[in-house]
Amino acid sequence: MTRRNHKERGGSTLIEFTLVGIPMIFILISTFELARGMWTYHTVTYAVKEGTRYASVHGVNCTTSPNSCGVTIANIALVMKKAGIGLMPGQLSVTLTPAAGSSTTGTLESLLTNNTAWPPSTPSGTNSVGQPVTITAKYPFRSALALFWPGTRAQQGAGLFYLPASSTDRIQF
What we know:
alpha+beta
């Protein structure tokens, strides 16, 4: 009779693991994915804030003689790349918006080669002290949780989220 009870208990262990273990594994993976998503989001926002800060301290007075601290879009993109550890520059879409005039948009990778002065001096006063500069970005994040969603394997965009970031500051110098 002891052997019979042992065999019956072995089957109940498998059922208990199925009922408790599998949801616990899903919770563990979900926690990891949430942490990875938040890390990516905070990295994107930090990179955008650092780019805006850098641009805000390089205004009109940086290009006035004898100063030579004028800045280009490539300089701002390099600051953002250094602050955005772990982000793929080819996937980070960035828009630089001055107080007046047209915006510059591209991937961080393409902006690294743009040697246009920014913030621009035209229209007149755009790079003056007190004028706002805005940098916005969008970064794709694909969650591994999409593997568990029924029917999503055939779709290309399954589990894809765009993490937005925006920062505005006024030119200080």
